[in-house]
Amino acid sequence: MIGGLFIYNHKGEVLISRVYRDDIGNRRNAVDAFRVNVIHARQQVRSPVTNIARTSFFHVKRSNIWLAAVTKQNVNAAMVFEFLYKMCDVMTAYFGKISEENIKNNFVLIYELLDEILDFGYPQNSETGALKTFITQQGIKSQTKEEQSQITSQVTGQIGWRREGIKYRRNELFLDVLESVNLLMSPQGQVLSAHVSGRVVMKSYLSGMPECKFGMNDKIVIEKQGKGTADETGKSELGSGKQSIAIDDCTFHQCVRLSKFDSERSISFIPPDGEFELMRYRTTKDIILPFRVIPLVREVGRTKLEVKVVIKSNFKPSLLAQKIEVRIPTPLNTSGVQVICMKGKAKYKASENAIVWKIKRMAGMKESQISAEIELLPTNDKKKWARPPISMNFEVPFAPSGLKVRYLKVFEPKLNYSDHDVIKWVRYIGRSGIYETRC
Amino acid sequence: MLTTIKQKACYSAALYCLTFLNKTGATLTFCKGKSKEAEIKRINKELANIRSKFKGDKALDGYSKKKYVCKLLFIFLLGHDIDFGHMEAVNLLSSNRYTEKQIGYLFISVLVNSNSELIRLINNAIKNDLASRNPTFMGLALHCIANVGSREMAEAFAGEIPKILVAGDTMDSVKQSAALCLLRLYRTSPDLVPMGDWTSRVVHLLNDQHLGVVTAATSLITTLAQKNPEEFKTSVSLAVSRLSRIVTSASTDLQDYTYYFVPAPWLSVKLLRLLQCYPPPDPAVRGRLTECLETILNKAQEPPKSKKVQHSNAKNAVLFEAISLIIHHDSEPNLLVRACNQLGQFLQHRETNLRYLALESMCTLASSEFSHEAVKTHIETVINALKTERDVSVRQRAVDLLYAMCDRSNAQQIVAEMLNYLETADYSIREEIVLKVAILAEKYAVDYTWYVDTILNLIRIAGDYVSEEVWYRVIQIVINRDDVQGYAAKTVFEALQAPACHENLVKVGGYILGEFGNLIAGDPRSSPLIQFNLLHSKFHLCSVPTRALLLSTYIKFVNLFPEIKTTIQDVLRSDSQLKNADVELQQRAVEYLRLSTIASTDILATVLEEMPPFPERESSILAKLKKKKGPGTVTDLEEIKKERSSDMNGSAEPASVNASAVSTPSPSADLLGLGAAPLTNSAPPPSSSGSLLVDVFSDSASAVAPLAPGSDDNFASPDLASSEVVSEEPADTVHDADELFHKFVCKNNGVLFENQLLQIGLKSEFRQNLGRMFIFYGNKTSTQFLNFTPTVICSDDLQPSLNLQTKPVDPTVDGGAQVQQVVNIECVSDFMEAPILNIQFRYGGTFQNLSVKLPITLNKFFQPTEMSSQDFFQRWKQLSNPKQEVQNIFKAKHPMDAEITKAKIIGFGSALLEEVDPNPANFVGAGIIHTKTTQIGCLLRLEPNLQAQMYRLTLRTSKEAVSQRLCELLSEQF
């Protein structure tokens, strides 16, 4: 179990320190050990788990802020990280960006939150919506007895993430399918590894205790349905061949009834109020790669390098990709660069040892090209340049995994609004994760 | 050393770069960057900029070259890799401007790597600068050599620098740099610095006008003189005269070299150090030196000329160095005493460091015979320091000093004070103090009652820190000295009455009461029963070893006080003893119970007799203290103390063990020889042999080991012997003749048999089928053997195949004498058995008869044959008849060491053939057995299996019986 939690700024100064168990010993020692061995380490520490003197430190970094959970026991590391991420979400929900200043301004609040979401090192309810009902940023206001009992029943009851009696004039919900696509490609265009990790984020403004059912083009569900209606088999198979996707694994928000998912593979739930992440998934098959990068690097003697990179967009011409950025690494002994590009802007950034080529917008099925001449300074180092891969960033308005939302049904038996009265919005955003092509 | 110099260079470079870069406005403010990432970005940008500048299209002017090289250097010092700019830095070296040259050298000294082409260029530039006659450039070049200090540098310049150093026209500042540079090169690679005629001229630098040169030269000479004192002997008189000039000069004379009113303190210290490399000089110089030292001591008495701490520091530095020189010479009583008095004043100084240094120097002073008395006068102050000092390291020194200054006259006081201090002492030094108290108490004990009191006090106060050795020692001394036994018994009895006492006290009490409880039994307050009950009341609180010891005490009580025998038997009979979970305790209880019921009083009295006096040995406490302190520190002190104690105490201490014998057989040597008592058979104490004494107090896990009287040294257990290498001379008595017999299979000389009366030694040589054996009979007793008749008997089977001729020996063998007998041997044909040597003689009226097998075995007639791998396997195949091959697979009896195995195979007589067997772990041998009638070829192969600790031995000879016999003999060896 988590023995304590520390928050540091980038200098290694402790902003928040909360100890839950005595076993981590002298608090100062633990705090210093992490600072010395991780934050101020000579070599950058890449492992998120560090073991110092039989004490484990699990850390995540948000911009300049380090969050470290400390324990002496053999805990489930995944649990600890899940908790740390949740902690970040909660803090973001309460005061926006996690920065040193925001943390300093919200000391009391953070300690209050820490008291609530961890008890003796065991994670408790960390649902922002629920927390917000009794931990507020306003001053202390005494709750009436009714309110108190309501909070108690909610926190201890079956549906801890939603309180009763919510009312909206307009019942509305937003669904975002956010995906990030990761790729590693060989210079010849062979896919070495590719996967999509996606999230379905829902923002709900619904009255009462609505029962929701979410459907998407999951291969298993589609096939099952296809079997159920025999005469439609041919049709659905035709459709599913293209339309359905194979999900490798997925996790759900605690509101989703897992038993139902296990038996019927249907996703039904009572949503928390406000924004939450309904599910997370990963796919590796039949990924639509939005861009293809074709590099061409030629070394001309010891002092010159010629680079030519072509990018091709590979989606419907009606769609527009945005925020496209191609990063071409340059050798460490670069002494001068000349760039010519057809579209967008390209610049040699010495501080990052790379040529950065930016294109604002690009439609599907188009092609663009950049060529650069790099001058090199001869060095006495015999080491050859490692040729790091060319990386790319972009944003496209579809889901590269091929996921489609088929339906989201809302039933509220007690109140008199039906599925049709709810206004629903669906949006797909595909972003690049680590999208690299070797050169 | 190397790293610190490098670090210093880095610091100065960083500082220089910063100031320079700030001054020029080319500020590199990345060190103020918010985060690491931001700093890296900034630096990447800067590096790209510098790279574009260095690209070589346009020539850079000296100033910008300097600027960028400086930036690169600074970036490197921030911890980033730099892989270019070396060429530009080397270019800077050839500039004529000082600042540009300096940055160039700085870059080279910090960033040099053994890049061959660059090193050549750099060396060239340095050479040019050394030859330039421009003092600043020469200085820069010398600094660079010293900063880099690599072997390449040393190789290139070690010959050059001495010339610069001793050249007449070299500037002072360059000489200074050259001396220090040479010192550095000498330290890193002494073999490359050539000794030559320059050495004598270096010595004369001590007379140089310029004090800086003298200081640098002194450092160099000191280091060189430590290696070759003879070559620099002349420096002594020069150093003394230089020193006297400094010491007598007024504080304003030396201008720049006067530091806070102290004239040239660093030089003085270095000169004094140099003098410490040599013994006291001849009288003329010595007088002058004494004068100097006196002046230094006088100056220390003068009121300080400045209140600044630097003034007193410099003055004291000189003073302490002077005192170490005085101690080093140890020849002027007057000076020694004065030094001691001076240090005495420091003992009460405010400054902690001074007190520490004073105590430390006094420790060494105390060992000088001249100043020992003077040191002793400060005893009160030191004791006071022990009590009131705040700094633990100073207290530690005070303890050391007390220990050093202790002698017969003040021992009681010092020991008492140490004991006092022990109650409040720091845990880290307690054990050491305990050891010191124990040693002092023993060494200077006039009155052994005092000694016993002290040690018991020690156990009472700091029982946890009293190691085994200490209480072993007290018991040893009590047993060896009749006069304190009664007192000791009384005292431990009283000490044991305390409600809570340390386990070590129980051990001592148990042992002493068990031995000497009878001496106080007359007093009704300490009647046997009370004694027993007192001990038994502690029994249940003790650990197993202590309980075992107490059980032995009880059985001793049975002997001492027959009236409480039944009580004790009841205790032994109780379930908690007889069925104790601990095997040792259970065994003791059972055996002692049986012993007390079966044996008659006479036998009991013999078995449980008082312990005999222990042989005098080196105090193992001292050994322990030495071990604790590390060899360097204490040994010196102890050795000095030894000399002194032998001077002062002489033979006045008959019983005190010579505590300062320096050689220790093993540092943890167990005082009573108990720890080493090996486990033999766990039989109860043998009650048969009258003179055997039982070591009931065996402290180690094993029970009772029978000991020959006063001969615990020549006792060794059989399993100890068998674990030894066979080829070593056995010094032990093993009665199993067969085993000894087997030892002789692989060797020709050694002891064949030994008991308390007689020792038989053998020496034999064999050639082909002939041999000769010398048998030595040694009389170990002091009385004559009469009718001494040894005969060699061959059995009927053996008779035809072995011819033995013996010469008769003198029938009387005097006490302590040795007689010799020669046996001529001829091997007619192969044989199986061994002849028997029968000896009959009369010793003190009783007739003795004993028989031993003579180790004449078939393999003695082996002649080794060398052959190639091919030959070997060819012959091996020829002997493939199943009757010719004998194979034996057996377990290893000895550690499986390849070297020993080889030695044994060679000793066995066959040739050891290397690289014959495809498996290098296997051993292969070949040879021919010569008999008068035939010759028998013989091949052997031994395959060890280390995992299983097994061997497989295969023998192939042309004769079945021979294979069989050789296999038997050889199998016993491994």
Give a quick precis of the structure.
The complex is a heterodimer of chains A (439) and B (974). Chain A is of the alpha+beta class and 439 residues long.
How are the SSEs placed, and which strands pair?
The complex is a heterodimer of chains A (439) and B (974).
Chain A: E1 4-8, E2 14-19, H1 27-39, E3 49-52, E4 55-62, E5 65-71, H2 77-95, H3 100-105, H4 107-117, E6 118-119, E7 122-123, H5 128-134, H6 145-156, E8 172-185, E9 191-205, E10 211-216, H7 219-228, H8 233-243, E11 249-252, H9 258-264, E12 267-269, E13 274-283, E14 291-300, E15 304-313, E16 320-329, E17 334-341, E18 345-349, E19 354-363, E20 367-376, E21 390-396, E22 405-411, E23 423-437
Parallel strand pairs in A: 8-23
Antiparallel strand pairs in A: 1-2, 1-5, 3-4, 4-5, 6-7, 8-9, 9-13, 10-12, 10-22, 11-13, 14-15, 15-20, 16-19, 16-21, 17-20, 18-19, 21-23
Helix pairs in contact in A: 7-8
Chain B: H1 2-24, H2 36-53, H3 62-77, H4 86-93, H5 98-111, H6 116-130, H7 135-148, H8 151-157, H9 160-166, H10 172-188, H11 198-203, H12 211-227, H13 235-248, E1 258-259, E2 262-263, H14 265-275, H15 283-301, H16 309-329, H17 333-346, H18 352-366, H19 372-376, H20 379-388, H21 392-405, H22 411-422, H23 427-443, H24 448-462, H25 468-480, H26 482-496, H27 503-516, H28 528-539, H29 544-560, H30 565-573, H31 575-578, H32 583-598, H33 601-607, H34 620-629, H35 631-648, E3 693-694, E4 706-707, H36 718-722, H37 737-743, E5 750-754, E6 758-767, E7 770-779, E8 785-793, E9 802-806, E10 818-827, E11 836-843, E12 846-853, E13 862-864, H38 869-878, E14 885-891, H39 898-908, E15 911-913, E16 923-930, E17 935-945, E18 950-957, H40 960-971
Antiparallel strand pairs in B: 1-2, 3-4, 5-6, 6-7, 7-10, 8-11, 9-10, 11-12, 13-16, 14-18, 15-16, 16-17, 17-18
Helix pairs in contact in B: 1-3, 1-5, 3-4, 3-5, 4-5, 4-6, 5-7, 6-7, 7-10, 9-10, 10-12, 12-14, 13-14, 13-15, 14-16, 15-16, 15-17, 16-18, 17-18, 18-21, 20-21, 22-23, 22-24, 23-24, 23-34, 24-25, 24-26, 25-27, 26-27, 27-29, 28-29, 29-32, 30-32, 34-35
